[in-house]
């Protein structure tokens, strides 16, 4: 129906035409805010634009053509289900439930948020002992959450926050560092800087109210069947690697190995408790290796070199014709790119050797990887 035809009928038909045209504006706003630079550097702006303008588009489309409501109804139903899960469900009770957590300045620019032991629906606490009695592990690795702290902002949240899984003593633990690489005027507005200002003194502790959405898992569980797990992480990427290491130490699968390389700028950053505990475990646990790479002393990490040390025959005690490796990396974008390139090169070398092109010096027959880019 043309605009002139709608005017000849009545005002309602004219309004439906204008509404359809007006609906294009929020569509373009959503498209523009989806540009990678905007969504990565201004995530909350991108997030709330999608939530609000998504509803505007739904209403405008339903007014524009009544049949659109029925076509969009299944999507609207799933949208409500999704938000119901975010608000009311989850390990910590969803966004509606406010928990009291412990915020700690762990020293050397590290911040640690520790949630209390989380209770289950029957009121009992979600402890490792309870899960072991049921024959199931409580240590699910690579979980991430959306964290909101009302004292910082009621609307701003910290998305894709990797966590060390719940234990008998505590709920999930989040390790964070204040953002760097921006002008000070912009840094003071960053969520992590606002968080750090709450515990400005080293080793100071403060109780804070927190809302947690999640957990969410990643779409790759290759670590469960891998004979060789290799983690090459930097900075706060150690959180996901710690969760994997704890899972491996708890499961201790037969004929498997675990190698964890953590690159930090200064050696002092590697004195955090979670890392020193893993180093102690590595001292007494066969096939479990931890390596601290200090970039200020040894330069940038060479992912190719570390992969070969972990996966080449002679260096690794676990070798079999059916072995497969799984590589995990998390941290700065430059590190992820270098590790991914190293994985591609290693995979090609393994395939060539497997097909008889060269002497096979690899301890594995296949290699896959997961880069924790935490992108939407």
Automatic annotation (TrEMBL):
One of its GO terms (biological process) is iron ion transport. Pfam families: Ferric_reduct (PF01794), NAD_binding_1 (PF00175). One of its GO terms (cellular component) is plasma membrane. GO terms for molecular function: ferric-chelate reductase activity. This is Ferric reduction oxidase 8, mitochondrial. Residues 10-60 form the Ferric oxidoreductase domain. The chain crosses the membrane at residues 12-38, 45-63. Keywords: Ion transport, Membrane, Transmembrane, Transmembrane helix, Transport. It is found in: Membrane. Residues 232-340 form the Oxidoreductase FAD/NAD(P)-binding domain. It is a multi-pass membrane protein. It comes from Colletotrichum liriopes.
